[in-house]
Design goal:
This protein has about 200 residues and is α+β, with helices and mostly antiparallel strands. It has two domains: about 70 residues, Glutaredoxin; about 110 residues, Glutathione S-transferase Yfyf (Class Pi), Chain A, domain 2, CATH 1.20.1050. It is built from eight helices and four strands, in the order E-H-E-H-E-E-H-H-H-H-H-H. Strands 2-1-3-4 form a four-stranded mixed β-sheet, covered by helices on one side. Helix 4 packs antiparallel against helix 5, helix 4 runs parallel beside helix 6 and helix 5 crosses helix 7.
Amino acid sequence: MSEHVLILGRASSINVRKVLWTCDEAGLPYTRQDASAEELAALNPNALMPVVRVAGRVIWESNTICRCLAGIAGRDDLLPRAPLERAAVETWMDWQATELNPAWRDAFMGLVRRAPAFQDPARIAAGAREWNARMAMLDAQLDRTGAYVAGPGFTLADILLGVSTNRWLMTPIERPRLPAIEAWLERLAVRPGFLSHARNGIP
C-alpha cells in the first residue's frame, strides 16, 4: 500500500502545487491542509510552505519533497536512478530553483503581489527582461529535445517548470512568442495534474 502524504500549505502556493502535481503523477494518496506560520515554523526552520509528513518523517524544501515522493512511489521515470539520466533531470530542477526563480521575483512581486518594496518601474522592467531571457533558455532546451525538458520522457523537471511557466504566462508582462514552450504546454495538457495544479488560473 502506498504511503499517505500529509501536505501542509496553501493550495495557491506555487511550491505546494508542484508537490500536489507530483503526488497525482506518482499515484500517492495525500491530504492537504492549510497551516499557520507558527505550525510551519515548528516543522521547518525557514517557516515556509510546503512541509510534508510521510512515513513518520518531516520533509521541507519543495524540490526535495518532489524527489523524495518520486522515490517513495518507485517512479524511476519521474526521477531516474542511473546517475547520468538523473543528472539530466536534476540539472533543470536546480536551474528552476537557482536561475529561474530569482529572475521572476521583481516582476511578479511588483505586478501580481503588488508588494510595496517591489514598485520601482525600472526594476520591474529589468526583471521582466531577465525572466523572458530565462524562459527563452527553456524554449531552446525544449526545441533540442522535441518533447520534454530533460529528454523524450516526462519527468519531475516538467512538473517544476510547468508550474513556473504558468506563473510566467499569468503575470502581466510583455512576452516573446516561444514556440517550443507552446508545443510543450499542449503535450502537458493531457495530464490531469497539469490542469489541476498548473494550468489552473493561479499565478
